[in-house]
Amino acid sequence: MTQTLARGKKRAVLLAAALLALAAAGAPRARAESFDSSAAKGRQDLAQGRRGQALLELSRALALWRPADGKTPRARVLADKAALENDVGELDRAIADLSAAVRLDKKRPDYFYRLGRLYMRESREVPAIGEFYKAVALNLSYKEAYFARGQAYERLGNRDFARQDYKTACRLGYRPACDALDVTAPRRRRRTLARAAFARCRAFLKSCAYGGASFSQCVKRVKPCAPDLRGTCCPRACLSLFWGLLPSRNEASAYDAAFGSPRPACAGIP
């Protein structure tokens, strides 16, 4: 009887030890597969430049999310993921994720601003303006949002509204907005800026083509001009003209139509 009790007690001790061992082995796995830990790992990967791994971890975090984890943390992960998708040109996914983020957290003006910027990248100025309005409604000193809204109005041809937003951003200390006010300067200055910008555009494309790249490769490498016409850029209308002609013309012919003349209509030189 005593031996039986001893053996039973020994089995109980062994069982308890086994359960403790299983719990200890399982604890790290549970933590590794939680929403919080995956989100933290994704941000750590991002900080260390492992962007592909960061995107994987953030996606895993979203898959593991439960309502108890909270809407605000989920919104942050969505916003971080959208930033990575934007960097690799996945604009549709970035817009979808950031749109979901602003639905979950309506108190972050930077989310609305970033969503507006994504719309601007797709030349969707009207919804972009709506997002910029939401951003400045939450932060009346959001100078970058005023400036971006001014750019959107400028693209739509509403120069009065654009100038008003540029003035506000400039007054708040945003230097690019102060520079952009030159866009509405006298006709002579505008003509000078436009000619200089298009000359830089043509010089860049010629240099690129002489380096052995195709015309389409060179056009892909140049950015569209901002309203201030600064830096190396090409008029948005000329870039659109080039791509629009490609289905019916070869690259050389499309390039000549868009960039062959020093003052094509698409350059908008007064």
Structural description of this entry:
The chain is mainly α. It folds into 2 domains: 58-64 and 71-184, Serine Threonine Protein Phosphatase 5, Tetratricopeptide repeat, CATH 1.25.40.10; 187-267, no CATH class. 73% of the residues lie in helices and 0% in strands. It has 14 helices and no strands. The protein has helices spanning 2-32, 35-47, 51-64, 71-87, 91-104, 109-121, 125-138, 143-155, 159-171, 175-180, 187-210, 215-221, 236-245, 251-259. Helix 6 packs antiparallel against helix 7 (125-138) and helix 8 (143-155) runs antiparallel to helix 9 (159-171). It is globular and about 60 Å long. It starts with a helix and ends in an 11-residue tail after the last helix.
Q: Name the average pLDDT.
A: 85
Tell me the structural class. mainly alpha
Count of extended strands: 0
Any idea what the CATH architecture of the largest domain is?
Answer: Alpha Horseshoe
Give the percentage of residues in beta strands.
Answer: under 5%
Q: Number of helical segments?
A: 14
| Terminus-to-terminus distance | 108 Å
- In this structure, how is the largest beta sheet organized? none
Q: What does the overall shape look like?
A: globular
Low-confidence runs = 1-7, 10-31
Rg (CA only): 28 Å
CATH class of the largest domain: Mainly Alpha
Write the element-wise H/E pattern from the N-terminal end onward.
Answer: HHHHHHHHHHHHHH
Helix content: over 70%
CATH superfamily of the largest domain: Tetratricopeptide repeat domain
Fill in the CATH topology of the largest domain. Serine Threonine Protein Phosphatase 5, Tetratricopeptide repeat
**Count of domain modules:** 2
